[in-house]
Amino acid sequence: MTETTSGPARGSRAKGSKANKGLRIERVHTTPGVHPYDEVTWERRDVVMTNWRDGSINFEQRGVEFPDFWSVNAVNIVTSKYFRGAVGTPQRENSLRQLIDRVVKTYRAAGEDHGYFASPADAEIFEHELAYAVLHQIFAFNSPVWFNVGTKQPQQVSACFILSVDDSMESILDWYKEEGMIFKGGSGAGLNLSRIRSSKELLSSGGNASGPVSFMRGADASAGTIKSGGATRRAAKMVVLDVDHPDVEAFIDTKVKEEEKIRALRDAGFDMDLGGDDITSVQYQNANNSVRVNDAFMKAVESGSKFELRGRMTGEPVEEVDAKQLFRKMAEAAHVCADPGIQYDDTINHWHTSPETGRITASNPCSEYMHLDNSSCNLASLNLMKFLRDDDKGNQSFDAERFAKVTELVITAMDISICFADFPTEKIGETTRAFRQLGIGYANLGALLMATGHAYDSDGGRALAGSITSLMTGTSYKRSAEIAAVVGAYDGYARNADAHNRVMKQHSDANDVAVRVDDLDTPVWAAATEAWQDVLRLGKKNGFRNAQASVLAPTGTIGLMMDCDTTGVEPDLALVKFKKLVGGGSMQIVNNTVPKALKRLGYQPEQIEAIVEHIAEHGNVVDAPSLRPEHYEVFDCAMGERSISPMGHVRMMAAAQPFLSGAISKTVNMPASSTVEDVEEIYLQGWKLGTKALAVYVENSKVGQPLSAKAKEEKKAEAPEPEKVVEYRPIRRRLPKGRPGITTSFTVGGAEGYMTANSYPDDGLGEVFLKMSKQGSTLAGMMDAFSIAVSVGLQYGVPLETYVSKFTNMRFEPAGMTDDSDVRMAQSIVDYIFRRLALDFLPFETRSALGIHSAAERQRHLETGSYEANEEEFDADALAQSAPKAEQGSQAASHEETPDSKDAQRTVAESEAPAPAPREAHNSTELLEMQLGLNADAPLCFSCGTKMRRAGSCYLCEGCGSTSGCS
């Protein structure tokens, strides 16, 4: 990408200095004489974002300008989050060009002022290449860059901060203030409280100390009152305590006790749902908590021996505890409320480039940035799918050369930003300028692995992830050494030179022994090996410009900006996605990566089409036609029928960790059936495999479940008076003597039958009759009984969609091919029956949410990307045939009471039991809830009301881009 033409220098060059010749910048994507903006087609769009729960408009800006290939979601999020200026004024940005220019031109100017470039021509190439990469969603800086750079407000570029606190009231109060200012600026912070003396130690006055846990209350309350960055997101923070602190058990218990409080208050009638009115009374909810363990403690856990807790003032033992019991206490707490996480202190400091200055004691809120106290890190992430290429023969490869060149470009820009950046405190500014910590990372790893036919939990998947991570970090440090030759090494390098070069050798050695698996990862490993050899050579000659280069962050909002399918190092959430459409509306689509994966695995186009159709209908690949069972694992996701095992997540973290300066923001998802022992095993294996930090989340472990305001009102309205006992009985609505009906003949797996479906005159399915095989056979008798039971249920008001959701996908013989063009395959007779009934009687929106479409609709989806047809495509006959014949909500009038048995009432009640999933999806998380019939443990977005999804240790809203984290 670049070359240097100078020797080493100390410190940043003064403005206008000509002592060094600077960096030569090479063109990668751009053409001389042509601006990147002139190579794309621009279009105007209207951005109107509403809160779907109450219909209010959260944000509106019309006529914004974006390239035609940007998705609706990316346009909405960039316009609402990153455009500066008051909406409705001439000062408001209205084009992506303005946003990119505001940031990129600031970086170019700072680079020229501080002597980074060899000539104005190189500066121009730098500007154009950077603009091209952002324009084409190849990479993105972290959110504070887009918020602040090029504006009149402070030029804060960092998303992650680490603070420090000492054992004095002055320091503790400074902690509160500094944390609050960071939250106000839209970022997050972490710190270690282990310097504060424990509640088991004495004050100089003779009384007992309060201990760190008591001071956590004040900080938590402060964080809970601050919406970071105005209204963009709430405060994010990390609190760490060393495992040998005498108050460590009280620290572990903080959230467990609050979880018990939530249960008690909920049972007493208080609104304790996530985002509820009364949840604010619960303490310690605004921070992620982690226990910092060392090797001595983990070895004591393995051997079952005692472990000493030491006083903060003297370092002498205060108490001796059973290491296994303390470890189990951590696992029990995490099993109940996901906290505390665990950080491995000796592993972290083994990879520390600046130990002579101080130890690494804490991390940012999402646990990926780990370095000195009172420091910060600015992040940027590369979109890995942009580097996957297919040749003319259909063979795939990862473009390692172009990936390395873009990495060099981004690292250069990130280092330049420190030259002009502002910081929330003077101490953070001093440390950051002296050590220049950077955090380049990537997004879309999960999508890349699936598209290349790799299971997330496989040797091939881990090898590809490891090789890319190694190449990224090796290239970054190589570039850092080249920049050091131009503008000097970081100020703290001289004192830490031996340690820094030792860590570079550790990275290089890990690269050399890594296992090569296939044709995709092997060339990337080769490129990484070459990069690390250059690192060792250039580092000894020039030193390094940056004490840290890489992390793997959650990539929440910027992942949406780049139209990434997966965030950070995470696997795909599900195979079917929720997609917003231009002009309004939305639809569900099968991930674009699925066909690429099937092609890589050798499937033919007609097989790929059938498998994709199966996924669209069922939401998973199980029993998909032609798909070999050994390939199922390629399509495993974070959630769903085939979800990745907890150890699969840990092994992926371990594959990437040796090639990162920092750590990885990731939560290990565990099924609801997981035990405390399972959590213990995850924490133990995380240590053995060399990860730096882990957090677990057991599904459905949290008490508070998000509910819409409407649902809460309905819940309160349905609650009977305490002193009254009200018995609700279903009322049967009988069909008249003459009723319209449809008779359908069908064949399922060779078994023939007839179905007659009769309706109420004012629409609404009222009864079903099924005839199978010969009269008097067992199958015929069971079908007769089944059809009577369904008919009675329909007449008592059980919605047809309830039957459809319960009986579709039920598997038993006979099963297989049918003679129905709309339902080509059926897993059983009842599977076919209720799919046919859904197509004949349910409105499009209802059955589409259940994944049921006609052949014409599926064909339309393949041709236009939409299941829905325009009105002009229908003639009168087609419209009459496709119109829904039933609307179950119309069965409210003219009911007839009959004294049926309690058994019948119970059957109907069970049929009517509401599923926890929403009826209408507004993002991928809610769509997945509908498919799986579950309620995802995630908060509602405080900006737009949609269900958020996990992004690392934090949460991300796909609707508006808000995050609960710091990146």
UniProtKB/TrEMBL annotation:
GO terms for molecular function: ribonucleoside-diphosphate reductase activity, thioredoxin disulfide as acceptor. The keyword Iron does not apply. This is Vitamin B12-dependent ribonucleotide reductase. Keywords: Cobalamin, Cobalt, Disulfide bond, DNA synthesis, Nucleotide-binding, Oxidoreductase. Catalyzes the reduction of ribonucleotides to deoxyribonucleotides. May function to provide a pool of deoxyribonucleotide precursors for DNA repair during oxygen limitation and/or for immediate growth after restoration of oxygen. InterPro entries: RdRp_reductase_class-2 (IPR050862), RNR_2_N (IPR013678), RNR_lg_C (IPR000788), RNR_NrdJ/NrdZ (IPR013344), TSCPD_dom (IPR024434). Its cofactor is adenosylcob(III)alamin. It comes from the Bacteria. Its EC number is 1.17.4.1. It comes from Streptomyces tubbatahanensis. Residues 1-24, 873-920 are annotated as: Disordered. Residues 47-137 form the Ribonucleotide reductase class II vitamin B12-dependent N-terminal domain.
